[in-house]
Amino acid sequence: MTIKLQAIKEMLNADVLCGDNLLDTEVTCGFGCDLISDSLCFARPGCLLLTGLTNVQIIRLAEMVEARAIVFVRGKRPREDVIGLAREKNLPLLATDMFLFESCGILYQAGLRSF
């Protein structure tokens, strides 16, 4: 199953930090984690990455695993340089006040799986 970012934005009551024009992008799976090493091992191409990590390495990681978008959880917001890099890479960034567990549960109920 695939889900569009617009629907994810609505389900998670998320703000779009960049990539407003990319909300019709579809994600094929989701992965929630705050560990770079686990994300490298388990995230899949085409995934939605949910994380509380907001540094520039998360953009590099998303690029390496071919993630379609990132959702920052727990009310976390990245710095402007991180958002700028995501814009350069055409990587949509969203942010929600929900916890990681809650966000993943909502998306799982909507049909999004880990692979």
Shape: globular
Structural domains: how many? 1
Structural class: alpha/beta
Mean pLDDT, nearest integer? 96
Q: Report the biggest beta sheet as strand number plus sense, adding barrel if it closes.
A: 5 strands, mixed
| Widest sheet: strand ordering | 2-7-6-5-4
Kindly provide the radius of gyration, computed on alpha-carbon positions and rounded to a whole number of angstroms: 12 Å
Distance between the termini: 10 Å
Question: Which parts are unreliable, with pLDDT below 50 for 5 consecutive residues or more?
Answer: none
CATH class: Alpha Beta
The tally of strands reads 7
CATH superfamily: HprK N-terminal domain-like
Based on the structure given, which CATH architecture is correct?
Answer: 3-Layer(aba) Sandwich
Tally of separate helices = 5
Strand content: 15-25%
> Could you state the order of secondary-structure elements as H and E?
EHEEEHEHEHEH
Would you give the CATH topology? Udp-n-acetylmuramoylalanyl-d-glutamate--2,6- Diaminopimelate Ligase, Chain: A, domain 1
Helix content range of the residues, please?
A: 25-40%
Compile the SSE list and pairings.
Blueprint: E1 3-4, H1 5-11, E2 15-18, E3 26-27, E4 29-32, H2 36-42, E5 47-51, H3 56-65, E6 69-72, H4 80-88, E7 93-95, H5 100-109
Parallel strand pairs: 4-5, 5-6, 6-7
Antiparallel strand pairs: 1-3, 2-7
